[in-house]
Specification:
- The complex is a heterodimer of chains A (265) and B (603).
- With 265 residues, chain A is an alpha+beta fold.
- Chain A folds into 2 domains: 107 residues, no CATH class; 130 residues, Sandwich (Immunoglobulin-like).
- Helix content of chain A is 41%, strand content 22%.
- In chain A, the strands form 2 sheets. Chain A has a 5-stranded mixed sheet with strand order 3-2-1-5-8. A 5-stranded mixed sheet of chain A has the order 4-10-9-6-7.
- In chain A, helix 1 packs antiparallel against helix 2 and helix 2 packs antiparallel against helix 3.
- The longest helix of chain A is centred in the first third of the chain and has 36 residues.
- Chain A is elongated, with a radius of gyration of 27 Å.
- The mean pLDDT of chain A is 91.
- Chain B is globular, with a radius of gyration of 25 Å.
- The longest helix of chain B is centred in the N-terminal third of the chain and has 37 residues.
- Chain B has 17 helices and no strands.
- Chain B has 3 domains: 236 residues, Cytochrome C Oxidase, Chain A; 238 residues, Up-down Bundle (Cytochrome C Oxidase, Chain A), CATH 1.20.210.10; 65 residues, no CATH class.
- The chains are: A alpha+beta (265), B mainly alpha (603).
- At the A-B interface, helix 1, helix 2, helix 3, strand 7 and strand 9 of A face helix 4, helix 11, helix 12, helix 13 and helix 14 of B.
- The complex binds protoporphyrin IX containing FE and copper (II) ion (2 copies).
- The site of one copper (II) ion has 7 residues of chain A, from loops.
- One copper (II) ion binds next to loops of chain A.
């Protein structure tokens, strides 16, 4: 009886783990907000995530069934029967080296395209290379954003007619856009949870980051690299505008920022 | 075959059963404090690390408190510690808490308890040597831990304490102005790291030399227990990786105190201070740090893997399944471990092409880990198991390690890591390995070798109760962290609920905190068991587990010099249930081949 109790105790937890994992989407503990990715690249990442989840889930269940089975049989051996005297099995060793090896290799190579798309400049979508909307400059503990004047291109050096904003990044929805990520002080990380985008901002580097908001709306932007005591406060948002309204919005912003109270010339 | 005969202490046989077995008498100080005896040093390491484990655990509970009940007063302790802030944990204090929690657990608990306590105690005993090759160096290795403890302890009293995380990335850790916790406390922290490094280095040189040179006759490399293999490989890892960390630490100290700029680029303005002159690169630190710290995570696991193999084999009365594959896979883990450090830096801004190579190497490192798991399952398969505390903790080790290994694959896949990097998913990953696997392994080790250390048995019922409560608490605390990570909750947030998309996670976090409190409380049982058994424990025989290893040939506890006579080794350590041996189901390494199965001749 005691034996049964121990096997139950050791093996109930994988069962619970599987149940909780299956319930996760219902319990709202899964991917944030809608549970769907708000960007196409995020969709690909979710797909890879679920693929790995299925493979590892099968391995998790399989190894635990095996573990439960061997514990069960090993604890049921009659007192006078000795353990099975064996030092191993060459064929088995080869099998459980080669098969997982192949699966792992497949997994590794299957990831590469998505990574290239996100980070390797040659694989960027064409539109992302052209639509450089803003420079995001992180500092303790806020995001400063610099846009080029409407119709102009973003320059490395700040220009006189640049526009500035804090903690609100305005972009058009429905097409890839690129920001240039920098930091004034320590490292920060540009994290868009619902779009599955993350990139560290590194002192001394300007890092292009592209993303695409599928729908107009507001998306959380937080910091994911420890940057000091106020790290947790670096909340901001990305505002994605319907593409046809975006240019108009930028013009209005330009007018608002350069309105000195006198009538225009 | 080794031909050297280890130096052998002379003593008359009638003395060997008492503590005072050795010829020359020693004063209390040289015997228990500045001792050069590897066993005493091992026990010193054990008690020190258990004490530090409690401190690290207290930090963890404070962290959990803040995550479950942000900005509310902690029960019991708020008056004493947080008077100034009205009993609350301030964000500054919170950063210090998780920094010190990580630092203490990694550098002062897990590494020294595995290599320092068990490595020290077991290596000479298991290879049949009277002591370590360099006993004085060994003693220094223990005493160098204390300056480290002093540095870390002192740093807590500077404003903000060290607050850049256990990884201490510059710029945050390089400039005094970067954070309240980046003052002198950070320099002290770096000095502390240097001291633990020196301590580990002395240990590792000693272990390598001892294992290579001092094996007793007949103890060939491929007759060594897996524990010794694991310690050997760990020592090699340490010897190659540590100098890099030490150099990096000194460079960062120089950046902070002498105005060099190894890690600081030009034109950085922190907190409106003067722009830096620069010329350095913050990513350099990450490369150097992880070049050490990835191998270091294996330093925190391999010894436990080795010891678990030995314990499982003994508790299942069965030879280890695939002895050589176990050694090869440990070597593969160690070798690959040196070329995967970049997986901590996928999105750090390093050259993205490196992401691909580091990903392939990292995913492939899961393979030797998987082989080890299969071999442990194979070891239990067809065994004759008894559910005692050692078995239970060892099985928990295997089960928890599976989870930690599998969650590693998620993060090794670069695209997925874009999302889950620096979220709670990674916290779940390494706690499943470091708590779930290593710490359960350590619990098993304590129970298993305690009789040899102190000559008394630990209590089984207490041990089992401790196991049950810890196991429940551990899974309740850490399994939901995977969910938090997938929900996008970043790590190191003093108050995540400031963000709308994380608000609904509060109840889950509260559940985790309750589990953590249960787990913390359960450790009281461990303390009672460890210290109470010194007094109330049953007297232990020489070989309470009917095990084959050399350490069980020595008296419990072994006297200075360990063995009554040089043990001669005739076979590997895993001959359990051999059909050639009918009188008993184990066959100690020191016993002669027997021709007729009825007589047992001892060498
Ligand atoms: C199956 C093998 C393993 C794989 C594939 C793996 C993979 C990874 C990856 C990719 C990361 C980086 C995650 C990120 O920063 O986003 C990571 C972090 C970590 N891993 Fe593993 N890992 C494995 C085994 C281990 C083991 C055996 C240990 C410890 C004994 C360990 C301890 C850690 C720790 C402590 C971190 C976090 C460091 C930090 O940022 O604070 N891992 N692991
Ligand atoms: Cu931050
Ligand atoms: Cu690593």
């Amino acid at each position: 009886m005691k034996r049964l109790w121990w096997i139950f105790f050791l093996m109930i937890w994988p069962v619970l783990a599987v149940i909780v994992s299956l319930l996760t989407p219902q319990l709202q503990w899964g991917f944030p907000l809608s549970g769907q990715s708000d960007s196409p690249l995020g969709g690909e990442i979710d797909h890879l995530f679920y693929l790995i989840l299925i493979i590892t889930g099968v391995v998790f269940v399989g190894t635990h069934i095996a573990l439960g089975y061997v514990i069960w049989t090993a604890s049921n051996r009659p007192g006078d029967r000795r353990a099975w005297y064996t030092h191993g099995n060459h064929k088995l060793e080869m099998t459980w080296t080669i098969i997982p090896g192949l699966i792992l290799l497949f997994l590794a190579f299957y990831q590469m395209r998505t990574w290239a798309e996100f980070r390797m400049e040659e694989a960027y979508p064409e539109a992302a290379k052209q639509n450089i909307v803003a420079e995001v400059n992180a500092r303790q503990f806020e995001w400063r954003i610099r846009y080029p004047a409407p119709g102009k291109e973003l320059q490395r050096k700040p220009q006189l007619d640049d526009m500035y904003g804090v903690n609100e990044l305005h972009v058009p929805a429905g097409s890839p856009v690129t920001i240039h990520l920098r930091t004034i002080d320590v490292q920060h990380s540009f994290f868009l949870p619902t779009m599955r985008i993350k990139q560290d901002a590194v002192p001394g580097l300007v890092i292009p980051v592209w993303f695409e908001a599928s729908e107009p709306g507001e998306y959380p932007l937080v910091c994911a690299e420890l940057c000091g005591w106020g790290h947790y406060k670096m909340g901001a948002k990305v505002v994605a505008h319907p593409p046809e309204e975006f240019d108009e919005f930028m013009k209005k912003m330009h007018q608002a920022q350069f309105n000195d109270g006198f009538a225009a010339e | 075959m080794t031909s050297e005969t280890p130096a052998h202490p002379d003593h008359s046989t009638d003395e060997t059963h008492s503590h005072q077995a050795h010829g020359h008498r020693q004063s209390f100080i040289t015997k228990y404090i500045f001792s050069t005896d590897h066993k005493v040093i091992g026990i010193q390491f054990l008690f020190t690390t258990i004490f530090l484990l409690l401190i690290g655990g207290a930090f963890a509970l404070a962290i959990r408190w803040q995550l479950a009940f942000p900005n509310t007063q902690m029960p019991f302790v708020n008056k004493a510690f947080f008077e100034a802030s009205g009993g609350q944990i301030t964000p500054e204090f919170y950063t210090m808490l998780f920094t010190m929690h990580g630092t203490v657990m990694v550098f002062l608990v897990i590494i020294p308890i595995l290599a320092g306590a068990f490595g020290n105690f077991l290596i000479p005993l298991m290879i049949g040597a009277p002591d370590m090759a360099f006993p004085k160096l060994n003693m220094m290795s223990y005493w160098f831990m204390w300056p480290a403890v002093a540095c870390f302890g002192l740093s807590l009293f500077y404003e903000g304490g060290p607050a850049a995380g256990w990884t201490s990335y510059p710029i945050l850790a390089a400039l005094y102005d970067a954070a309240p916790g980046s003052g002198f406390a950070q320099t002290l922290w770096l000095m502390g790291i240097t001291f633990v490094g020196v301590s580990s280095m002395m240990g590792s040189v000693n272990y390598m030399t001892t294992i290579i040179n001092m094996r007793s006759p007949g103890m060939t490399f491929f007759r060594m227990p897996l524990t010794i293999w694991a310690m050997f490989i760990t020592a090699i890892l340490q010897a190659f990786a540590l100098p890099v960390l030490t150099a990096a630490g000194l460079m960062l100290i120089a950046d902070r105190e002498f105005g060099t700029c190894f890690f600081v680029p030009a034109g950085i303005t922190v907190n409106d201070a003067e722009p830096t002159v620069g010329g350095g690169q913050p990513l350099l630190w990450q490369h150097l740090f992880w070049f050490y710290s990835h191998p270091a995570v294996y330093i925190m696991l391999l010894p436990a893997m080795g010891m678990i193999s030995d314990m499982l084999s003994c508790m299942c009365r069965k030879p280890i399944f695939g002895y050589r594959p176990m050694i090869y896979s440990m070597s593969a883990i160690a070798g690959l471990g040196f070329i995967v450090w970049g997986h901590h830096m996928f999105i750090s801004g390093m050259n993205p092409a490196l992401g691909m190579t580091f990903m392939v190497a990292t995913i492939m490192i899961a393979l030797p880990s998987a082989i080890k798991v299969f071999n442990w399952i194979g070891t239990i398969w067809g065994g004759h198991i008894e559910f005692n505390t050692v078995t239970l903790n060892s099985i928990a080790f295997v089960s928890m390690f599976i989870v930690g290994g599998l969650s590693g694959i998620f993060m090794a896949a670069v695209p997925v890591d874009i999302y889950i990097h620096d979220t709670y998913f990674i916290v779940a990953h390494f706690h499943y390995i470091l708590f779930g696997a290593t710490l359960f392994g350590i619990f098993a080790c304590i129970q298993f070798w305690y009789p040899k250390m102190f000559g008394r048995m630990m209590s089984e019922p207490l041990g089992k109760l401790h196991f049950v409560l810890t196991f429940i608490g551990m899974n309740g605390t850490f399994f939901p962290m995977h969910m938090l990570g997938i929900a996008g909750m970043p790590r190191r947030y003093a108050n995540p609920y400031l963000h709308e998309y994380l608000e609904h996670l509060l109840p889950l976090n509260q559940f985790m905190t309750y589990s953590a409190i249960l787990m913390g409380a359960a450790q009281i049982l461990l303390l009672i068991n460890v210290f109470g058994s010194l007094i109330w424990g049953k007297k232990a025989p020489r070989n309470p587990w009917n095990s084959n290893g050399l350490e069980w040939v020595a008296p419990s506890p072994p006297p200075h010099g360990n063995f009554e006579e040089i043990p001669l080794v005739y076979r590997g350590p895993y001959e359990y249930s051999s059909p050639e041996r009918t009188d008993q189901d184990y066959w100690p390494q020191t016993e002669h081949e027997i021709v007729s199965s009825s007589s047992t001749t001892t060498a």
